[in-house]
Specification:
Helix content: 10-25%
Order of helices and strands: HEEEEEEEEEHHEHEHEHE
Shape: elongated
Distance between the termini: 54 Å
Structural class: alpha+beta
CATH architecture of the largest domain: Beta Barrel
Largest sheet: 8 strands, antiparallel, barrel
CATH topology of the largest domain: Porin
Radius of gyration: 28 Å
Strand content: 35-45%
Number of helices: 6
Strand order of the largest sheet: 1-3-4-5-6-7-8-9
Number of strands: 13
CATH class of the largest domain: Mainly Beta
Length: 375
């Protein structure tokens, strides 16, 4: 068991210190939906009380996975494993084949290391050697419930390393050849149970439409459209502009693109708006918030008060609460990108400070906004 723990620690260390960039496809972007094929080995360990399992357990799996969005996937996972242990002096071996159908949820699909949680159910068929008591049948079939946590890590074009730890509750008490030796189940019922650690590989072979979820704004390093600048210069210049000094233009852009943040002032985050009656961030808000995080990270002496605003639909009390929830959503995003939470305060302004006419749909949308008060 010590060797197993040392091996897992080594793998985790390699994963966290590696600088491989981005969860993406060979095309350089994340797809809204995708297909993947997986395979690997597994180490099962029985959780039944009083039944001493050996370290010679082993197994393997294959999988086919369909990701329906950037966050949600469905996986079919056939597997085989051998589970050995002793009850007193009797050594029992259960050779098991089966399969699981699991729903997966990816928390941060845009990051190099993408953790997920999985839940589902499966089917098992076990064949025993030296079952105890001997009156037990030599095989048994039943279903199980699964709950697990894992992560995928990009290691090459379309290839990912996968690691997963699962807990399984079997619906009967003699699935592995021993009767009357149970473990706590996922629903609190004492049944057979086991854990397994899986290490394998995923090959993504099918991609759908490009996702905008991972479009990272490049912060203060703005992308300069030289062709557009040249057209503007030619249009308004009083003399020939055949020789455009692009280096000079870029120097000017660099000089003025880093806005001054000293002193107390307010920023209206144009583009960070919310759907009616909701506080969840919309995907089109991410580039603006990435920019804000970049500025705060490059100016560590600046503190901000995030002010949430609403339109005038609803009561004053409800709108004040909703506006605070919107401010907290923005704070959580900035903190997740590395900005210290101690530098950020939040306040809900409700409908008290509109910037547009609440009589129109467009005006109400603009009033559902976020402002930064720089301190």
């Amino acid at each position: 068991m010590k060797k197993t723990i040392m091996f897992l620690s080594l793998v985790l260390s390699i994963m966290f210190v590696s600088s491989t960039f981005a969860q993406s496809s060979k095309y350089g972007w994340l797809a809204k939906e995708s297909w993947a094929f997986g395979f690997g080995g597994m180490y099962p360990y029985g959780m039944n009380q009083g039944y001493k399992y050996t370290e010679s357990n082993y197994g393997g799996f294959i999988s086919i996975q369909r990701n329906y969005s950037e966050h949600v996937g469905l996986r079919l996972k056939p597997q085989f494993f051998s589970l050995k242990g002793k009850l007193g002096t009797t050594e029992v071996t259960a050779n098991t084949i089966g399969g699981n159908l699991d729903l997966l949820y990816y928390f941060v699909p845009c990051e190099p290391l993408s953790p997920y949680i999985n839940v589902g159910f499966g089917f098992l068929y076990s064949m025993f050697d030296n079952q105890t008591p001997v009156t037990l049948p030599t095989s048994n079939a039943d279903w199980q419930m699964n709950l697990g946590f894992g992560a995928e890590y990009m290691i090459g074009e379309n290839w990912k390393l996968s690691m997963e730890l699962d807990y399984h509750t079997v619906s009967n008490a003699s699935q592995f050849g021993v009767q009357g030796v149970n473990a706590p189940g996922l629903l609190g019922t004492p049944k057979d149970a086991y854990m397994d650690f899986d290490l394998g590989f995923l090959y993504y072979f099918g991609y759908g439409e490009k996702s905008n979820l991972c479009q990272l704004y490049e912060g203060v390093n703005a992308i300069i459209d030289y062709a557009k600048i040249e057209d503007i210069v030619k249009k308004y210049a009083a003399e020939s502009t055949d020789n455009i000094d692009y280096d000079r233009i870029e120097d000017i852009v660099k000089k003025y693109k880093s806005v001054a943040v000293a002193g107390e002032q307010n920023w209206v985050l144009i583009g960070v708006n919310f759907d009616f009656n909701k506080s969840s961030l919309k995907s089109e808000s991410f580039p603006i918030l990435y920019h804000a995080a970049e500025i705060l990270l490059t100016h560590p002496d600046v503190n901000v008060e995030i002010q949430g605003h609403t339109d005038n639909v609803g009561s004053d009390n409800y709108n004040q609460k909703l506006s605070l929830e919107r401010a907290v959503s923005v704070k959580n995003f900035l903190v997740s990108k590395g900005v210290s939470a101690s530098r950020i305060t939040t306040v809900g302004m409700g409908e008290s400070k509109p910037i547009s006419d609440n009589k129109t749909a467009d005006g109400r949308m603009l009033n559902r906004r976020i402002e930064f008060k720089v301190k």
